[in-house]
Design brief:
metal ion binding; 0% strand; identical protein binding; 6-phosphofructokinase activity; PFKAM protein
Length: 107
């Protein structure tokens, strides 16, 4: 049920803070949620690991990262590794994006 005045007084010294743990970094009012930085670090480790393989085989690699409805991890990863293309939910691709992408790959 409810907390009595006596129970509240006994626990008045407790200070409780709620912290968001989400790699998506989609919680309003925070700079970065717990887990976002470590997820970005791990993604960059993977990018570093596959870059030499992509270069040696002269292949284009597509990397998908988590983020649900928030493109923060994808955008920051793209900026950090110099990606040629990034899709994020906040900015859906324009019409005929496939043609533009194919032209870039051909170049």
């Amino acid at each position: 049920g409810g907390i009595t005045a006596e129970e509240a007084k006994k626990s008045s010294h407790l200070n409780i803070v709620g912290m968001v743990g989400s790699i998506d970094n989609d919680f309003c009012g925070t700079d970065m949620t717990i887990g976002t930085d470590s997820a970005l670090h791990r993604i960059m480790e993977i990018v570093d690991a596959i870059t030499t393989t992509a270069q040696s085989h002269q292949r284009t690699f597509v990397l998908e990262v988590m983020g649900r409805h928030c493109g923060y991890l994808a955008l920051i990863t793209a900026l950090a590794c110099g990606a040629d293309w990034v899709f994020i939910p906040e900015s859906p691709p324009e019409d005929n994006w496939e043609d533009h992408l194919c032209r870039r790959l051909t170049e």
